[in-house]
Amino acid sequence: MTQEKLASPADQPAVDRAATWTRRHLLDVDDFTTAELDTVMDTTDAMKEVMGRDVPRVPALRGKTIVTLFYEASTRTRASFELAGKALGADVINISAGGSSIEKGESLIDTVRTLQAVGADLLVMRHSASGAPYLVARHLKAAVINAGDGWHAHPTQALLDLYTIRAHLGEVRGRRIVIVGDIAHSRVARSNIWALSTMGAEVIVCAPPTLLPAGLRPSSADHGPGPEGDATEPLAMPPVHVDANLDRAVEGADVVMTLRLQKERMQGGLLPSVREYATLYQLNEERMSRARTGALVMHPGPMNEGIEISPALVSSLQSVIEEQVTNGVAVRMAVLYLLARGGK
Ligand code: NCD
Prior knowledge:
34% of the residues lie in helices and 13% in strands. The chain is built from eleven helices and nine strands. Helix 1 packs across helix 11 (321-340) and helix 5 packs across helix 6. The protein is globular, with a radius of gyration of 20 Å. It folds into two domains: 16-153 and 326-342, Aspartate/ornithine carbamoyltransferase (Rossmann fold, 3-Layer(aba) Sandwich), CATH 3.40.50; 155-321, Rossmann fold, CATH 3.40.50. The strands form two sheets. Strands 7-6-5-8-9 form a five-stranded parallel sheet. The chain has a four-stranded parallel sheet with strand order 2-1-3-4, with helices on both faces. By secondary structure, it is α/β, with parallel strands linked by helices. Bound molecules: N-carbamoyl-L-aspartate.
Protein backbone atom coordinates (compact mmCIF):
# COMPACT_ATOMS: atom_id res chain seq x y z
CA MET A 1 0.00 0.00 0.00
CA THR A 2 1.40 3.39 -0.84
CA GLN A 3 1.80 6.04 1.78
CA GLU A 4 -1.29 8.14 1.53
CA LYS A 5 -0.78 11.65 2.64
CA LEU A 6 -3.91 13.09 1.19
CA ALA A 7 -2.69 16.64 1.06
CA SER A 8 -5.89 17.72 2.68
CA PRO A 9 -7.25 19.61 -0.21
CA ALA A 10 -10.77 20.44 0.53
CA ASP A 11 -12.19 17.12 -0.58
CA GLN A 12 -10.13 14.71 1.52
CA PRO A 13 -9.30 14.07 5.16
CA ALA A 14 -5.60 14.44 6.02
CA VAL A 15 -4.73 10.92 7.08
CA ASP A 16 -1.09 10.04 7.67
CA ARG A 17 -1.09 6.66 9.32
CA ALA A 18 -3.71 4.81 7.31
CA ALA A 19 -1.02 3.21 5.15
CA THR A 20 -0.02 0.98 8.07
CA TRP A 21 -3.51 -0.50 8.44
CA THR A 22 -3.83 -4.22 7.65
CA ARG A 23 -7.14 -5.37 9.09
CA ARG A 24 -10.06 -6.38 6.95
CA HIS A 25 -12.69 -6.57 9.67
CA LEU A 26 -13.33 -4.90 13.01
CA LEU A 27 -14.66 -7.61 15.27
CA ASP A 28 -13.21 -6.55 18.63
CA VAL A 29 -10.31 -4.57 20.02
CA ASP A 30 -9.03 -7.45 22.16
CA ASP A 31 -6.13 -8.13 19.78
CA PHE A 32 -5.36 -4.52 18.86
CA THR A 33 -1.85 -3.21 19.37
CA THR A 34 -1.18 0.26 20.75
CA ALA A 35 -0.02 1.25 17.25
CA GLU A 36 -3.35 0.18 15.77
CA LEU A 37 -5.28 2.06 18.42
CA ASP A 38 -3.11 5.10 17.70
CA THR A 39 -3.87 4.78 14.00
CA VAL A 40 -7.60 4.84 14.69
CA MET A 41 -7.16 7.82 17.05
CA ASP A 42 -5.09 9.80 14.52
CA THR A 43 -7.49 8.99 11.71
CA THR A 44 -10.33 10.15 13.96
CA ASP A 45 -8.53 13.48 14.41
CA ALA A 46 -8.59 13.89 10.64
CA MET A 47 -12.29 13.00 10.56
CA LYS A 48 -13.04 15.53 13.32
CA GLU A 49 -11.47 18.14 11.09
CA VAL A 50 -13.82 17.08 8.28
CA MET A 51 -16.80 17.22 10.67
CA GLY A 52 -15.85 20.78 11.57
CA ARG A 53 -16.11 22.00 7.98
CA ASP A 54 -19.05 24.03 6.71
CA VAL A 55 -20.00 21.09 4.52
CA PRO A 56 -18.85 18.04 6.49
CA ARG A 57 -18.48 15.72 3.52
CA VAL A 58 -15.59 14.16 1.64
CA PRO A 59 -15.75 11.68 -1.22
CA ALA A 60 -13.28 9.21 0.32
CA LEU A 61 -15.77 6.31 0.12
CA ARG A 62 -17.62 7.38 -3.01
CA GLY A 63 -18.85 4.33 -4.87
CA LYS A 64 -18.78 2.14 -1.74
CA THR A 65 -21.92 0.66 -0.24
CA ILE A 66 -22.32 0.27 3.50
CA VAL A 67 -25.10 -1.89 4.89
CA THR A 68 -26.12 -1.64 8.53
CA LEU A 69 -27.81 -4.84 9.67
CA PHE A 70 -29.28 -4.58 13.16
CA TYR A 71 -30.95 -7.49 14.90
CA GLU A 72 -31.10 -5.50 18.16
CA ALA A 73 -32.31 -2.03 19.06
CA SER A 74 -29.99 0.92 18.62
CA THR A 75 -30.18 4.67 18.37
CA ARG A 76 -26.75 6.24 18.58
CA THR A 77 -24.62 3.44 17.16
CA ARG A 78 -26.74 3.00 14.09
CA ALA A 79 -27.33 6.70 13.47
CA SER A 80 -23.63 7.47 13.83
CA PHE A 81 -22.60 4.72 11.40
CA GLU A 82 -25.10 6.05 8.90
CA LEU A 83 -23.92 9.64 9.32
CA ALA A 84 -20.30 8.52 9.15
CA GLY A 85 -20.86 6.62 5.91
CA LYS A 86 -22.70 9.53 4.32
CA ALA A 87 -20.05 12.03 5.43
CA LEU A 88 -17.54 9.90 3.52
CA GLY A 89 -19.70 9.86 0.39
CA ALA A 90 -20.74 6.19 0.62
CA ASP A 91 -24.21 4.83 -0.09
CA VAL A 92 -25.75 3.60 3.16
CA ILE A 93 -28.58 1.08 3.40
CA ASN A 94 -30.17 0.26 6.76
CA ILE A 95 -31.76 -3.10 7.44
CA SER A 96 -33.42 -4.17 10.68
CA ALA A 97 -34.65 -7.61 11.64
CA GLY A 98 -38.26 -6.40 11.56
CA GLY A 99 -39.43 -5.67 8.02
CA SER A 100 -36.76 -7.73 6.23
CA SER A 101 -36.66 -11.34 5.09
CA ILE A 102 -35.21 -12.15 8.51
CA GLU A 103 -38.84 -12.07 9.66
CA LYS A 104 -39.56 -14.79 7.12
CA GLY A 105 -36.95 -16.99 8.74
CA GLU A 106 -33.98 -16.32 6.50
CA SER A 107 -30.77 -17.45 8.16
CA LEU A 108 -28.05 -15.01 9.12
CA ILE A 109 -25.64 -16.36 6.52
CA ASP A 110 -28.26 -16.23 3.74
CA THR A 111 -29.09 -12.67 4.70
CA VAL A 112 -25.50 -11.43 4.65
CA ARG A 113 -24.74 -13.30 1.42
CA THR A 114 -27.73 -11.58 -0.15
CA LEU A 115 -26.47 -8.22 1.03
CA GLN A 116 -23.07 -8.93 -0.42
CA ALA A 117 -24.64 -10.05 -3.69
CA VAL A 118 -26.42 -6.71 -4.03
CA GLY A 119 -23.12 -4.93 -3.60
CA ALA A 120 -22.33 -4.33 0.10
CA ASP A 121 -18.66 -3.47 0.56
CA LEU A 122 -18.91 -2.96 4.31
CA LEU A 123 -21.37 -4.65 6.65
CA VAL A 124 -22.03 -3.08 10.04
CA MET A 125 -23.86 -5.58 12.20
CA ARG A 126 -25.40 -5.86 15.64
CA HIS A 127 -26.65 -9.21 16.88
CA SER A 128 -27.78 -10.63 20.19
CA ALA A 129 -25.57 -13.72 19.78
CA SER A 130 -21.98 -13.28 20.93
CA GLY A 131 -19.70 -14.25 18.08
CA ALA A 132 -22.22 -13.71 15.25
CA PRO A 133 -19.98 -11.17 13.41
CA TYR A 134 -17.07 -13.65 13.52
CA LEU A 135 -19.21 -16.25 11.80
CA VAL A 136 -20.32 -13.75 9.18
CA ALA A 137 -16.75 -12.55 8.57
CA ARG A 138 -15.78 -16.12 7.63
CA HIS A 139 -18.43 -16.16 4.91
CA LEU A 140 -18.00 -12.73 3.36
CA LYS A 141 -15.55 -10.87 1.22
CA ALA A 142 -17.08 -7.62 2.48
CA ALA A 143 -15.56 -5.98 5.56
CA VAL A 144 -17.50 -6.79 8.73
CA ILE A 145 -17.79 -4.30 11.57
CA ASN A 146 -19.14 -5.49 14.87
CA ALA A 147 -21.61 -2.93 16.22
CA GLY A 148 -22.28 -5.05 19.31
CA ASP A 149 -22.59 -8.84 19.69
CA GLY A 150 -24.45 -10.13 22.72
CA TRP A 151 -22.48 -9.67 25.92
CA HIS A 152 -19.23 -9.97 24.04
CA ALA A 153 -17.84 -6.89 22.30
CA HIS A 154 -18.59 -3.38 21.08
CA PRO A 155 -15.33 -2.23 19.58
CA THR A 156 -16.40 1.13 18.12
CA GLN A 157 -17.82 2.16 21.50
CA ALA A 158 -14.47 1.41 23.15
CA LEU A 159 -12.69 3.37 20.42
CA LEU A 160 -14.90 6.42 20.83
CA ASP A 161 -14.52 6.23 24.60
CA LEU A 162 -10.75 6.07 24.22
CA TYR A 163 -10.84 9.01 21.85
CA THR A 164 -12.95 11.06 24.26
CA ILE A 165 -10.63 10.29 27.18
CA ARG A 166 -7.55 11.21 25.16
CA ALA A 167 -9.15 14.43 24.00
CA HIS A 168 -9.46 15.53 27.63
CA LEU A 169 -6.60 13.88 29.44
CA GLY A 170 -3.99 13.43 26.72
CA GLU A 171 -1.96 10.45 27.90
CA VAL A 172 -4.04 7.43 28.93
CA ARG A 173 -1.13 5.46 30.38
CA GLY A 174 -1.28 5.36 34.18
CA ARG A 175 -4.74 6.93 34.36
CA ARG A 176 -7.12 5.47 36.89
CA ILE A 177 -10.31 4.57 35.06
CA VAL A 178 -13.30 3.12 36.92
CA ILE A 179 -16.01 1.19 35.09
CA VAL A 180 -19.04 0.79 37.32
CA GLY A 181 -22.29 -1.07 36.84
CA ASP A 182 -23.60 -4.10 35.10
CA ILE A 183 -20.26 -5.43 33.93
CA ALA A 184 -21.53 -9.00 33.52
CA HIS A 185 -23.92 -8.12 30.69
CA SER A 186 -21.85 -5.37 29.14
CA ARG A 187 -20.05 -5.71 25.83
CA VAL A 188 -19.08 -2.05 26.28
CA ALA A 189 -17.22 -2.85 29.51
CA ARG A 190 -15.43 -5.78 27.96
CA SER A 191 -14.17 -3.90 24.91
CA ASN A 192 -13.23 -0.92 27.06
CA ILE A 193 -11.23 -3.10 29.43
CA TRP A 194 -9.21 -4.32 26.45
CA ALA A 195 -8.64 -0.96 24.80
CA LEU A 196 -7.85 0.94 27.99
CA SER A 197 -5.57 -1.77 29.35
CA THR A 198 -3.69 -1.96 26.06
CA MET A 199 -3.11 1.79 26.29
CA GLY A 200 -1.69 1.35 29.78
CA ALA A 201 -4.57 2.62 31.93
CA GLU A 202 -5.23 1.20 35.37
CA VAL A 203 -8.75 -0.19 35.07
CA ILE A 204 -10.92 -0.65 38.15
CA VAL A 205 -14.13 -2.58 37.74
CA CYS A 206 -16.87 -1.93 40.29
CA ALA A 207 -20.12 -3.87 40.62
CA PRO A 208 -22.03 -6.05 43.02
CA PRO A 209 -20.54 -9.56 42.79
CA THR A 210 -23.62 -10.83 40.94
CA LEU A 211 -23.01 -8.34 38.13
CA LEU A 212 -19.37 -9.25 37.57
CA PRO A 213 -18.46 -11.74 34.84
CA ALA A 214 -17.35 -15.06 36.28
CA GLY A 215 -13.73 -14.42 35.34
CA LEU A 216 -13.62 -11.25 37.39
CA ARG A 217 -15.73 -12.28 40.33
CA PRO A 218 -13.93 -11.50 43.60
CA SER A 219 -12.71 -14.82 44.88
CA SER A 220 -12.30 -14.13 48.58
CA ALA A 221 -13.82 -11.99 51.28
CA ASP A 222 -11.23 -9.26 51.02
CA HIS A 223 -12.19 -8.73 47.41
CA GLY A 224 -15.82 -8.10 48.25
CA PRO A 225 -17.41 -5.13 49.92
CA GLY A 226 -15.04 -5.44 52.86
CA PRO A 227 -11.61 -3.85 53.26
CA GLU A 228 -9.09 -3.72 50.42
CA GLY A 229 -11.39 -4.66 47.65
CA ASP A 230 -8.96 -5.22 44.88
CA ALA A 231 -7.94 -8.27 43.01
CA THR A 232 -5.98 -8.95 39.90
CA GLU A 233 -7.54 -11.55 37.68
CA PRO A 234 -5.78 -12.32 34.42
CA LEU A 235 -7.92 -15.17 33.00
CA ALA A 236 -9.18 -14.44 29.51
CA MET A 237 -9.21 -10.70 30.16
CA PRO A 238 -6.38 -8.31 30.88
CA PRO A 239 -5.76 -7.81 34.61
CA VAL A 240 -8.12 -5.33 36.23
CA HIS A 241 -8.77 -4.34 39.80
CA VAL A 242 -12.11 -5.35 41.20
CA ASP A 243 -13.76 -3.38 43.97
CA ALA A 244 -17.37 -3.83 45.02
CA ASN A 245 -17.35 -0.55 46.94
CA LEU A 246 -18.00 2.44 44.69
CA ASP A 247 -16.95 5.12 47.18
CA ARG A 248 -13.57 3.49 47.49
CA ALA A 249 -13.22 2.70 43.78
CA VAL A 250 -13.84 6.31 42.77
CA GLU A 251 -11.13 7.64 45.12
CA GLY A 252 -8.55 9.44 42.97
CA ALA A 253 -10.11 8.34 39.65
CA ASP A 254 -9.38 10.25 36.44
CA VAL A 255 -12.44 8.85 34.69
CA VAL A 256 -15.59 7.13 35.93
CA MET A 257 -17.64 5.34 33.33
CA THR A 258 -21.02 4.09 34.43
CA LEU A 259 -23.13 1.53 32.59
CA ARG A 260 -26.79 0.85 32.11
CA LEU A 261 -28.44 -1.84 34.19
CA GLN A 262 -29.27 -4.23 31.36
CA LYS A 263 -32.51 -5.56 32.69
CA GLU A 264 -33.36 -7.24 29.37
CA ARG A 265 -30.30 -9.47 29.70
CA MET A 266 -30.79 -10.44 33.34
CA GLN A 267 -32.30 -13.76 34.23
CA GLY A 268 -33.73 -12.24 37.41
CA GLY A 269 -32.63 -12.55 40.99
CA LEU A 270 -29.28 -10.84 40.43
CA LEU A 271 -30.18 -7.79 42.50
CA PRO A 272 -32.26 -7.49 45.66
CA SER A 273 -33.88 -4.38 44.19
CA VAL A 274 -33.15 -1.62 41.71
CA ARG A 275 -33.55 0.86 44.55
CA GLU A 276 -30.86 -0.83 46.60
CA TYR A 277 -28.62 -0.92 43.53
CA ALA A 278 -29.11 2.82 43.09
CA THR A 279 -28.24 3.45 46.75
CA LEU A 280 -24.97 1.54 46.52
CA TYR A 281 -23.91 2.05 42.89
CA GLN A 282 -25.45 5.23 41.54
CA LEU A 283 -22.83 7.67 40.37
CA ASN A 284 -23.71 11.07 41.79
CA GLU A 285 -22.01 14.35 42.62
CA GLU A 286 -21.20 13.35 46.18
CA ARG A 287 -19.41 10.21 44.99
CA MET A 288 -17.63 12.02 42.16
CA SER A 289 -16.22 14.48 44.69
CA ARG A 290 -13.87 11.65 45.74
CA ALA A 291 -12.37 11.48 42.26
CA ARG A 292 -9.65 13.81 41.00
CA THR A 293 -10.63 17.40 40.35
CA GLY A 294 -11.91 17.57 36.80
CA ALA A 295 -12.37 13.81 36.49
CA LEU A 296 -14.58 12.80 33.58
CA VAL A 297 -18.02 11.23 33.88
CA MET A 298 -18.90 8.91 31.01
CA HIS A 299 -21.83 6.73 29.99
CA PRO A 300 -22.21 4.88 26.66
CA GLY A 301 -25.99 5.37 26.73
CA PRO A 302 -28.81 4.68 26.78
CA MET A 303 -29.04 5.94 30.37
CA ASN A 304 -31.43 5.10 33.15
CA GLU A 305 -31.17 8.45 34.90
CA GLY A 306 -31.82 8.10 38.60
CA ILE A 307 -30.61 4.48 38.63
CA GLU A 308 -26.96 4.17 37.58
CA ILE A 309 -26.40 7.94 37.32
CA SER A 310 -27.97 10.98 38.94
CA PRO A 311 -29.64 13.49 36.61
CA ALA A 312 -27.54 16.31 38.11
CA LEU A 313 -24.31 14.54 37.18
CA VAL A 314 -25.47 13.93 33.61
CA SER A 315 -25.72 17.67 33.04
CA SER A 316 -22.68 18.61 35.15
CA LEU A 317 -19.52 20.13 33.74
CA GLN A 318 -17.67 16.87 34.35
CA SER A 319 -19.99 14.95 32.05
CA VAL A 320 -18.65 14.17 28.57
CA ILE A 321 -21.62 11.97 27.71
CA GLU A 322 -22.83 14.06 24.78
CA GLU A 323 -19.31 14.40 23.51
CA GLN A 324 -19.03 10.61 23.45
CA VAL A 325 -21.98 10.52 21.07
CA THR A 326 -20.51 13.24 18.86
CA ASN A 327 -17.11 11.56 18.77
CA GLY A 328 -18.88 8.35 17.79
CA VAL A 329 -19.46 9.73 14.30
CA ALA A 330 -15.80 10.68 13.73
CA VAL A 331 -14.51 7.38 15.14
CA ARG A 332 -16.86 5.43 12.87
CA MET A 333 -15.77 7.51 9.91
CA ALA A 334 -12.20 6.55 10.77
CA VAL A 335 -13.05 2.86 11.04
CA LEU A 336 -15.02 2.82 7.79
CA TYR A 337 -12.24 4.69 6.02
CA LEU A 338 -9.52 2.36 7.25
CA LEU A 339 -11.44 -0.84 6.48
CA ALA A 340 -12.61 0.37 3.06
CA ARG A 341 -8.99 0.63 2.01
CA GLY A 342 -8.95 -3.15 2.29
CA GLY A 343 -6.72 -5.01 4.67
CA LYS A 344 -5.38 -8.53 4.61
C1 NCD B 1 -24.71 -0.04 24.44
C2 NCD B 1 -24.92 -1.31 23.67
O1 NCD B 1 -25.89 -1.44 22.93
O2 NCD B 1 -24.10 -2.15 23.82
N1 NCD B 1 -25.13 1.12 23.89
C3 NCD B 1 -24.42 1.69 22.87
O3 NCD B 1 -24.15 1.10 21.87
N2 NCD B 1 -24.02 2.96 23.07
C4 NCD B 1 -24.95 -0.16 25.87
C5 NCD B 1 -26.31 -0.58 26.36
O4 NCD B 1 -27.13 -1.12 25.66
O5 NCD B 1 -26.53 -0.35 27.55
